[in-house]
Amino acid sequence: MAAEDELSAKEWVKKGNAKYVLNDYISAIDDFTKAIEMDPTYEPAYNSRGIAKDKLGHYYEALEDYTNAIQINPEYSDAYYNRGVTKANLNDAYGAISDFTLAIELNQLFVLPYLKRGKIYENINDFESAINDFTKVIEINPDYAEAYFDRGNARGNISDFSGAISDFTKAIELKSDYIKAYYNRGIIRRNIGDLSGAIEDFYYVIEMEPENADVYNQIGIAKGDLQDFNGAIDDFTKAILLDPELTDAFFNRGLTKCYVEDYAGAIRDFAIAIKLDPDFTEYVPKDLLDQIVED
C-alpha cells in the first residue's frame, strides 16, 4: 500500500507540474497539496508547491514548504536552491547565499545556485566572489551565454574592461541576438574610448529595438565624444521623441548645443531637464543656469 500511496503522490505532482507549466499556479498548488495528503513524506510535492507559491508571491509559505522538504530529505539540493531563490526575493541576501552554498555542497555540478549566488555577490559588491561563481558555471557548461554576460558585468565593475569585453563578446558568439551583451559591451567600449566600436554595438541594439530611447542617448554621447555634434544632437532628439521624459537626453542635448553655440537651445533643454529632475541643476553651467533662473 505504501508503494501505491507514493505512486499516487507522484501522479498528483505530475498533474500539478503540467498546470504549473501553463501558469495555473493555484490549481497546481491544489494538486501538490493532494500529493502531500496522499503521502506527507513525499518531499518533491513540498518543493513543487513551494515553487508555485513563490510565483504567486506567497514567499513565507514557500519557505515553509522548502523547509519541510529539507527536513524530510536533508540532502535535497533542489529544495535548498529554491529556498535560496525565495530568500533572494525577500531581499535576504545572506540567507540566500547560505542556501545556494548548501545546494552546491550537495551537488557541485548544479549550475543554477552558482549563477544565482554570483548575482547576489554582485549586488552586494563582492565582485571577486561573483566572478568566481560565474567562472565555475562556465567550467561546468562552457556554452552558457548568461554566465559570460554576468561575469562581464562583474569584471566591468572592477575596471577589468578587456576581460569584460571578452566575456560580452563570447556571450554574443553563443547567442547572436543577446541585446544586453551588445549594449553593455557598447558602454564599456565607449568608456575606454573605442567610440566607433561602441556606436556599432548600439546600432545593433537599435536594429533589434528601434524604439529604445536610451540607446539613442548613448549613441549621441559617443558621437559627441567624436565631436560629431550635429549627429549627436540628432540622436538626442530621437531619444526625446521616443521618451519625452528622458532627462539625460535633454541634458546631453543641451550640453552639445553649447558646443555648436546654440545657447538659446541649450537653455531650453537645460530648463526641461531641471523641471524633470531638479537634481540636474548642479550640473548646468552656472552662466546658463543664471539665465534659466531669471526666466
Radius of gyration, in Å, reads: 26 Å
Q: Which second-level CATH architecture of the domain at 211-295 applies?
A: Alpha Horseshoe
Termini separation: 86 Å
Q: Helix coverage percent of residues?
A: over 70%
CATH class of the domain at 211-295: Mainly Alpha
Q: What is the averaged pLDDT score? A: 95
**Structural class by helix and strand composition:** mainly alpha
Question: Count of helices?
Answer: 17
The CATH topology of the domain at 211-295 corresponds to: Serine Threonine Protein Phosphatase 5, Tetratricopeptide repeat
Based on CA inertia axes, which overall geometry fits? elongated
SSE order, one letter for each helix or strand: HHHHHHHHHHHHHHHHH
| DSSP strand content | under 5%
For this structure, what is the CATH homologous superfamily of the domain at 211-295? Answer: Tetratricopeptide repeat domain
Unreliable stretches (pLDDT < 50, length at least 5) are: none
Secondary structure: number of strands: 0
**Largest sheet data:** none
Write structural notes for this entry.
This protein starts with a helix and ends with a helix. 79% of the residues lie in helices and 0% in strands. It has helices spanning 2-21, 25-38, 43-55, 59-72, 77-89, 93-106, 111-123, 127-140, 145-157, 161-174, 179-191, 195-208, 213-225, 229-242, 247-259, 263-276, 286-294. The protein contains 17 helices and no strands. It is elongated and about 80 Å long. Helix 16 (263-276) packs across helix 17. The chain has 295 residues and is mainly α.
